[in-house]
Amino acid sequence: QVQLVESGGGLVQAGGSLRLSCAASGRTFHGNPMGWFRQAPGKEREFVAAINWNTSSSRYGDSVKGRFTISRDHAKNTVYLQMNSLRPEDTAVYFCAADVNPGWHVPDQSGEYEYWGQGTQVTVSS
After folding, report:
1. DSSP states along 9-75
2. Which residues pair with 69 in a beta bridge?
3. CA–CA distance, 7 with 30 (Å, rounded to integer)
4. How far apart are CA 69 and CA 82, in angstroms?
5. Staple 92 to which of 1, 12, 38, 125, CB 3.0 to 4.6 Å?
6. pLDDT per residue over 19-64, tens digit each?
7. How far is it, in rounded angstroms, from Cα 59 to Cα 1?
8. Phi-psi domain of 34 (left: phi exceeds 0; alpha: psi -120 through 50; beta: other)
9. Which pLDDT belongs to residue 55?
């Protein structure tokens, strides 16, 4: 059974940092893009970041560019999201996702991902 499990969420003050982790089990995603999305109450799921299979390419949502960094560790089958300079508007449930289609692409649409984690809450206080 394939599982993606996020961790690292929590409560942080504005300007602070958090690092989210997403550990995959049940299969490896070494040749596949992986991404992060977030969803705030009453809002649609929003693209945050994605990275291709060999980390040569990444993509970010406009609202997080320059503040968030996505990375991955194939040996640990894990993808990370380093979040710096956090703002109250970053408050959301953060989900990681994996694309079953291997390749060089870096998807930014939720419909392109087949596997999803259950999410981890990030709350940024002002």
Report:
1. -EEEETT--EEEEEEEESS--TTS-EEEEEE-TTS--EEEEEE-TTSS-EEE-TTTTTTEEEEEEGG
2. 82
3. 20
4. 5
5. 38
6. 999 999 999 999 999 999 999 999 999 999 999 988 889 999 999 9
7. 28
8. beta
9. 86
